[in-house]
Design goal:
By secondary structure, the protein is α+β, with helices and mostly antiparallel strands. It is about 30% helix and about 25% strand. The protein contains 15 helices and 21 strands. The strands form five sheets. Strands 1, 4, 5, 6, 8, 9, 10, 11 and 12 form a nine-stranded mixed sheet that branches.
């Protein structure tokens, strides 16, 4: 089902590779304003392609790509390649180092109803349009999205390990993660990897807006091209693939913040929550994460300097709306969005995606600070979701509540770029991989 293709990446020139840590950047949707300003100071940092800073960002990105190619800032590899990408990381409070192992290749673009690439969240049209403009102007995938496949044999990992014996370069990124890149040039191994992937479905873990942009751009280009063959660069999308069966996948929780509600009152909030939840005050705010850990339909509440554990009362789960798909109806986040935000706060489920009162933060300490300072009125502390639940929802054809997943660590931008330009996409070696 999933057709993948090796490609010839554009990468920073050999001398610049020694300074690769200074050239990488966070993805466009997670980079902070402060990070942007620091990275903009380097005129050849990848941030200038992913999040251009000028008044005309699209044309700025286009001009930079052209100039960087011309002056050798970036150089295209000669051979079609599968790029091996490892990320070494630790989690807060733990000393064990984890290595997430994957590879980067081009994926044939599939429409959602083809049921090959499965999404777990919806996209916002404005963000998609922005990405289409950058893709069209630069003819370049600036950074790979992240896709998940399932292969219990772990055969692909043996080829990745062989490649990692000779890494090209490594960098420590903004997350404190050590990123390492190597290559696979062997045509027989590349063909074997593509064979393994042909019967796989791929779950889109991260990069929904960027993939949706590639999809909409492909539809536009196919309609405009009378000689369309299906082999053009616009038919492919750059993706980082990892195996769900490896013990290296981490999904972190994303907490909810509430602000600017009229006539907000802590006593009334706790009273209203008590209609649906058992509410328990927690003396030590910083124990809230541990208190709810592993408990079904349990959440933390921060209001002012106070903390509460809430857990859905027995029988209340039967109040969940029947129209919600079975695969998502009883998930923790669905329960939270219905009972806390719809029933208690009065923000209907259908309106929550666009609500100006609701925002998100992954950092528990930041949530404590924002609520304690009065910047936000309340925080709802959530738990992580298992990959098994994500797979179950995706295979059902439905999507999760917004911001249900945060796959960690994030892929970085700057290790390589993938061209879809007609003069750069094809290679005389391509027949060897078909």
């Amino acid at each position: 089902m999933a057709i993948i293709k090796p490609f010839r990446a554009w990468r920073y020139g050999h001398e610049l590779q020694e300074k690769i840590s200074e050239l990488t950047s966070p993805l466009f949707d997670v980079v902070s304003d402060k990070q942007r300003e620091n990275l903009y100071a380097n005129p050849i940092n990848s941030i200038h392609l992913s999040v251009p800073s000028s008044k005309d960002p699209v044309m700025d990105a286009k001009a930079r790509v052209s100039q960087w190619k011309l002056d050798g800032t970036i150089i295209q590899d000669n051979l079609p390649t599968i790029y091996v990408y490892y990320q070494y990381f630790t989690l807060p409070g733990r000393s064990e180092e984890i290595c997430r192992k994957g590879f980067i290749a081009n994926l044939k673009i599939y429409d959602w109803d083809e049921n090959v690439l499965l999404r777990h969240e919806d996209t916002m049209p404005h963000s998609v349009n922005d990405r289409i403009e950058v893709l069209d102007a630069t003819q370049m995938n600036i950074a790979p999205t992240h896709g998940l496949f399932t292969d219990e044999s772990n055969e692909i990992e043996t080829y990745l390990e062989q490649s990692m014996q000779s890494p090209l370069y490594e960098a420590e990124d903004y997350q404190g993660v050590r990123d390492v890149l190597s290559v696979i040039h062997d045509a027989s191994i590349i063909k074997r990897i593509t064979e393994i992937m042909t019967d796989k479905k791929v779950i889109l873990a991260d990069g929904h807006h960027r993939y949706e942009s590639s999809l909409q751009y492909q539809i536009q280009q196919e309609a405009a091209n009378k000689g369309h063959t299906g082999l053009e660069g616009y038919n492919y999308h750059l993706m980082y693939f990892t195996n769900t069966e490896a013990d290296d996948l981490r999904i972190l929780p994303t907490h909810r913040l509430i602000s600017n509600l009229f006539d907000f009152d802590e006593y009334q909030m706790i009273t209203d929550l008590s209609k649906y939840f058992n509410v328990t005050p927690i003396e030590n705010v910083y124990e809230l994460n541990e208190v709810i850990l592993g408990k079904k339909w349990a959440f933390g509440i921060l209001i002012g300097d106070n903390a509460y554990k809430i857990r859905l009362k027995e029988g209340m789960i039967n109040e969940m709306p029947d129209h919600l798909p079975k695969a998502v109806r009883f998930l923790d986040n669905t329960v939270m969005h219905f009972f806390v935000f719809d029933k208690v706060l009065g923000i209907p489920l259908a309106d929550q995606r666009n609500s100006t009162n609701l925002s998100f933060d992954r950092n528990f300490g930041e949530c404590v600070s924002l609520v304690s300072s009065g910047t936000c009125q309340m925080a709802v502390i959530t738990q992580d979701i298992s990959i098994e639940k994500v797979k179950e929802v995706c295979y059902s054809g439905h999507t999760l509540p917004q911001k249900s997943t945060y796959f960690y660590p994030k892929v970085i931008c700057g290790f390589l770029f993938g061209s879809i330009h007609p003069d750069e996409f094809d290679s005389p070696f391509d027949p060897a991989f078909r």
